[in-house]
Amino acid sequence: MHEITGELAGHNTIRSIENGCAIEEKWVSTQGHTGTSISFFNAATSQWRQIWVSASVGGYRIDIQGGLDDTGRMVMTGDIHYFADQRRLPMRAVWTPESGGSVTQFMQQKPDAASDWETWFNVQYFPATSEP
Q1: What is the pTM of this model?
Q2: Does position 123 have pLDDT exceeding 60, yes or no?
Q3: What percent of the chain has pLDDT over 70?
Q4: Which end of the chain is more exposed for a tag (fewer CB within 10 A), N or C?
Q5: What is the secondary structure of the chain as a DSSP string?
């Protein structure tokens, strides 16, 4: 898990693909963990959907969907599937625009129905030209 600490957590490369129909994201953490996502707008459901896959730490897949809330945050829910032990857990993610063009990404998973949500990922992204 990555937490906002003021230290560099990694680098993200984001680009438009498939003639503007999807967004590809590639992440590399400072520890060498990697992951790739494809995000797209599903006109049939009027929601954004993101599929994230990583071979790091035993491998996992995140499948979430949602859209903008009334405050302009992107809010998506779905699940995370851990390949090594076949666990599927509820997952939720919120991207919040911040001043200066940065974005905070906050993700949580819920280990079981009786548990509270646990922080899974909490980082602030900065445009490459304005890293702290």
Answers
A1: 0.89
A2: yes
A3: 95
A4: C
A5: -B---SS--EEEEEEEETTTTEEEEEEEETTS-EEEEEEEEETTTTEEEEEEEE-GGG-EEEEEEEEE-TTS-EEEEEEEEETTT--EEEEEEEEEE-GGG-EEEEEEE-SSTTSPPEEEEEEEE--GGG--
Burial per residue of 44-68, b for 16 or more beta-carbon CB atoms within 10 angstroms, e otherwise = eeeebbbebbbeeeeebebbbbbee
d(CA 58, CA 126): 28
Which pair of structure tokens corresponds to residue 97? 């625009």
Rounded to a whole number of angstroms, the distance between the first and last alpha carbons of the chain is 21
